[in-house]
Amino acid sequence: MSFFSTAQRTESYQPALAWSAALGGVWVFILVMLGAFTTSIGAGMIFLDWPLSDGSLNPEGWLTDMMMFAEHSHRLSAGVMSFITIGIWFAVWKYDARGWVRGVALSAVGLVFFQALIGGLRVLMDHLHVDLVNTSMGRLFAMLHAGLAQVYICVLLTLALALCRRWIEGSPESVGSRVKALGKWCCGLLLLQLAVAAIMRHSYAGMAIPTFPMSSADGDLLPPYWDFRVAIHFAHRVLAIVLTVALVWFAVVLGKDAAVGRGLRQAANWMLIMLVGQIALGASVIWMQRNPYVTTGHVLLGACLLATTYGITLWTHGRAKATT
Q1: Is 151 exposed, middle or buried (0-12, 13-18, 19+ CB in 10 A)?
Q2: What is the pLDDT of residues 199-251, one digit of tens each?
Q3: Does any domain span residue 2?
């Protein structure tokens, strides 16, 4: 029988598929953590070649040099992520009868290879300077690479939820239309905030405003002077305030909707816990002068916050019936 035969395809819950998607969902956060740490210690250009590192899969000294270890382990984990994604797609294509799920799996494969290409261009084109924005072409690709990573997380989470038992076998819940609308707004704001954060991080603007919560040592609300780095940093802080209001509002609306199930309520509680943690880590980044471990935690928790908010929103759209 051909690999692409539809004879074995089903819409029923399949544990092996669910666990493979869960593995991809876990591994992507390992990849994000390693990438964030690499950027936080400034090791993104420790190797000037790609896809190999100093012309090898096992460059000399990478296990003992922190800079080399951070970048090379990120590259190796990206390779593992590619194989996991391809494996998920093969399994979904062969065994899952839902066309939209197979489409998401295929988009995950396309995105993981595009991410790898962007990551390579970040290295190979770093020597080119872009006068218009006064930065290197490599840094521009690094910003795109960081932003697309968040989209990739959402794609993998879509697969993980669509293949889980509760999605396939559970009964739909009636959820108010305001819950669904707020969820989409929160996801959009989070993606915007993470894009701004990527630009800020790769523009070396993480300490452009070195005080917190005020914007100067004199206690000014606004920065005393402005340039691009200060502006993008300040935009990140303003968006954090907007997001705090939006996510709290989203959680309150979810909690007041009598039709919302226990699982979504628990997810909303975790979303708020992550929000508090993210604010604390963001402040600590400034207070601890961009400590690489704190900064990495801030990036990683931001990705987890997006995943949780997106998961709630996806569930209300895919598994819950909207009511007016």
Answers
A1: middle
A2: 999 999 999 999 999 999 999 999 999 999 999 999 999 999 999 999 999 99
A3: no
Listed in sequence order, the residues at least 6 apart from 18 whose beta carbon sits closer than 8 Å to its beta carbon are 160, 163, 164, 165
Q: Confidence band (pLDDT; 50, 70, 90) for 8?
A: confident
- Boundary (domain end) residue, out of 148, 170, 192: 170
Identify the pLDDT of residue 170: 80
Query: Which amino acid appears at position 132 of this protein?
Result: L
CB of 136 closer than 8 Å to CB of 128: yes
In this structure, are strands 320-323 and 173-176 parallel, antiparallel, or unpaired? parallel
3 belongs to a structural domain: no
- Whether 6 is covered by a domain: the verdict is no
Structural domain contains residue 5: no
Please name every residue paired with 56 in a beta bridge, in sequence order, or none if there are none.
Answer: 53
Helix, strand, or coil here: 314? helix
Q: Judge if 161 and 192 occupy the same domain.
A: no
Copy the structure tokens of residue 137: 């072409």
- Structural tokens at position 135: 């930065």
Tell me if residue 128 falls in helix, strand or coil: coil
Instruction: For residues 159 and 230, state if they share a domain.
Output: no
The answer to whether the CB of 152 falls within 8 A of the CB of 82 is no
Question: What's the domain range around 29?
Answer: 11-170
Domain final residue pick, 170, 199, 229: 170
Q: Alpha helix (H) ranges present in the chain?
A: 15-40, 66-95, 99-124, 137-162, 165-169, 177-202, 228-256, 262-287, 292-318
